[in-house]
Specification:
Layout (H helix, E strand, L loop, with lengths): L3 E6 L10 H10 L2 E8 L5 H12 L3 E5 L11 H10 L5 E10 L7 H18 L3 E6 L2 H10 L2 H4 L1 E4 L5 H9 L3 E4 L9 H6 L8 E3 L21 H12 L3 H15 L10
Parallel strand pairs: 1-2, 2-3, 3-4, 4-5, 5-6, 6-7, 7-8
Helix pairs in contact: 4-5, 9-10
Length: 265
């Protein structure tokens, strides 16, 4: 069985309440032996749920933050929850945080201030940062440089930029993660971007329940579907499926400071 690592999943959410156990079982049957659950959707309940899942399952780890869509709703109490959970031993990163200028659900200046503050929190707890960047790559890189993200370890999740953006992140030493979007017919620029990311900084993810890859598009995404994304990224990177799987497991363990899995590859 080839091992895969879903570096970004939202299986804590209500979309999985009815069959979470079955979803996780299907993931393992598909070779997804590990996953990072992102506690950043909506209010801080997502962070609490993600940490609780990580406490219950030795192959799941959590992150905590507030998504840029929601940072204009943040209160002192929200920040207090993140400050409390950030040092937790099952929390491996701060995120997803960042900038989204496509939807602009939160004012851009509010997003920028929160992004910088989450970087400060990541430095205080000595953990990497997971970034959501959409239509804001120049501003994001400026904040990441100012916030010394390279010292932490930095993941650009669900990459949707240009090949030039991928190259710029790679030159900063960041990790770049590709989601099911890379399988879509209209996503040739993303496929063109894959070779600009060094093999030792490539990650794959589902971002489930969103962005199901072809041939599952239109369905609720789940971690087991990452196989389809891995196949496309492997082809774009000039690697076999087995090579891509092993490399991305190694890379994900490295950036999140996890021991590599034992036993079979």
């Amino acid at each position: 069985m080839i091992r895969l690592f879903d570096s970004h999943a939202h299986v804590d959410g209500p979309e999985f309440d009815a069959d979470r156990g079955e979803v996780l079982a299907r993931a393992r049957a598909a070779g997804v032996s590990r996953m990072i659950v992102i506690g950043a959707v909506g209010d801080t309940g997502s962070a609490e749920r993600s940490v609780a899942l990580a406490e219950q399952d030795p192959d799941i780890w959590a992150t905590v933050a507030t998504h840029p869509h929601d940072v204009d709703k943040m209160t002192d109490a929200w920040w207090a929850v993140h400050e409390r959970l950030a040092p937790h031993p099952r929390v491996v990163a701060i995120g997803e945080t960042g900038l989204d200028y496509y939807y602009d659900h939160s004012p851009r200046q509010v997003q920028q201030v929160a992004f910088a503050r989450f970087l400060e929190l990541a430095h205080r707890v000595g953990k990497p940062v997971v970034c959501h960047i959409r239509d804001a790559h120049d501003d994001a890189r400026a904040i990441l440089k100012e916030g010394r993200a390279g010292e932490l370890g930095c993941v650009i999740h669900c990459f949707t930029g240009t090949p030039e953006d991928a190259k710029a992140y790679a030159e900063l030493g960041y990790y770049v993660s590709f989601s099911g979007i890379v399988t879509y017919k209209t996503a040739q620029p993303l496929r063109d971007a894959v070779p600009f990311v060094p093999r030792d900084r490539l990650l794959i993810e589902t971002d489930c329940p969103y962005l199901a890859p072809i041939p599952k598009r239109g369905k609720r995404n789940e971690p087991g579907f990452i196989v389809h994304t891995a196949e496309v990224v492997a082809s774009c990177a000039g690697m076999s499926f087995e090579e891509l799987a092993a490399q991305t497991v190694e890379n994900t363990c490295r950036v999140f400071h996890l021991d590599p899995p034992t036993g079979l590859p």
